[in-house]
Structure of Hydrolase:
Amino acid sequence: MAENRASVYGEGVPCWVDAQLPDVAAGRRFYGELFGWTFDEEVPDSAAAVWARKDGSPVAALTHKTDGRMPTVWTVYFATPDARALCGRIRAAGGQIVTAPVPVDGLGAAALATDPEGAVFGLWQAGDHPGFGRRHEAGTFGWVELYARDTQAANAFYGSLFHDALFGADAEPDFGRAPVSDVFPAEMPPHFLVHFLVADCEQAVGAVQRLGGRVQAPAFDASYGRVAVVTDNQGASFALLQR
């Protein structure tokens, strides 16, 4: 379907996700079996990202985690035409820049930031790589939920950065906000949770468990679909979403 082969993403639209893993080969096996992803050939530099593809189109990346102190995690990237300018607006709104914009082999420029509560998110300024080649279908990105302590403060922060993407007349949001305690223990830090679409949530949960992952939150009904929160076999959390 044409709408799944998006080539341009407006500022504030989730446009890419990657997972930082200690063992990329194990990640390829896990996600290849779970979502039917295929992978580009690994490059000699073990720190480089390996693209995952669905029906030939890029849908995510798996990256080798070189520092064992860093979390094993999925990160969402929001599109921007000017990452440096957006970093300035993030600082002015009370957020912090973890990694300033860095060019990525002509593909674009990436940065990492946190909101005022500490939730980490990425920025992507497209070059040759605009982002997802497919989304909103089984085995691809479908949603990202911010679990925050103060959802009104989160609305104000992200609304000031990405107003058109969140509240514009033509917006079809891929991004929601909810209190941490809705799903997780109250002491869980604020964070973004990447959701991948599946045809059957319960069956997908069973597949995660067979592949060595575990369940953090059994399937429940949310306003945007049926959701289960799981981790892969290396500890990276993500959600399964059935619509």
